[in-house]
Amino acid sequence: MKGIDLNSSQVNVKVEDLVSIITPHYNNLTVLRDALDSVQNQTYSNYEHIIVDDDSLLEVKAELQKLIGNYPNIKLIFLDENRGAGHARNIGITAAQGRFIAFLDCDDMWEPAKLQIQIEYMIKNSVDLCYSEYHVMNSDGVVLNIRKIKSPLTYPGLLKTNSIGCLTAVYDTTRFGKVFMPTMRKRQDLGLWLKLAKLGAKIEGIHIPLARYRLAEHSLSSNKASAALFQWKLYRENEQLGIMKSLYYFGHYVFFALLKRV
């Protein structure tokens, strides 16, 4: 995938290939505008952007409603109970009308040609789930490094390490229909990738950074102990692996986590 122009406007895809972008939101308007701008600046314009507010404060909901008036193609859904990002994403998947479903958290951003490159690649290569490398930023937006990926991926490979950043993932509903995230507080995105892998999805990544992931000091993603606990629960409860298989894959998970060091 070397040599791709991130600002290219040429892509041979059908106008009916609508992309549904799903963004969960909870009391985080300060960075949401960056995410909205990055979607509006996409060179691929056939999208709907579904923002699911996970029961933010009343004043935040009012400001959110004002904010989205400045952006096209947005559907806003308000939930009356806070149940976490995974549940909010599933509500978004239910409401989605597009062939393709993409995910973008409210504190992350996309490069301008992100959708264009991925949709073209998926159609040309019959890929069911596509992802990419991405930049890792601190809370001030300063890029720290590039998160590299492994590709292609299989079910056993995903159990060893998750190379798919949720902010880069796009899946095609053509073969398997809408597939939902498991109802767990964390690792629900990996749970979705595993579901698709078990269905026989073709899973491939693009080796250039197409998005920007923002590290939040006190976010769920920055809590390593919590992440390890949920990884173990994913093996035992969600995937129903035995003790020995769980230990085998958990050992790989720890090894690759140490390599990432972020």
UniProtKB/TrEMBL annotation:
InterPro entries: Glyco_trans_2-like, Nucleotide-diphossugar_trans. This is Glycosyltransferase family 2 protein. Transmembrane segments: none annotated. SUPFAM superfamilies: Nucleotide-diphospho-sugar transferases. The keyword Transferase applies. Residues 20-140 form the Glycosyltransferase 2-like domain. It holds the Pfam family Glycos_transf_2. Keywords: Transferase. GO terms for molecular function: hexosyltransferase activity. The keyword Transferase applies. Coiled coil: none annotated.
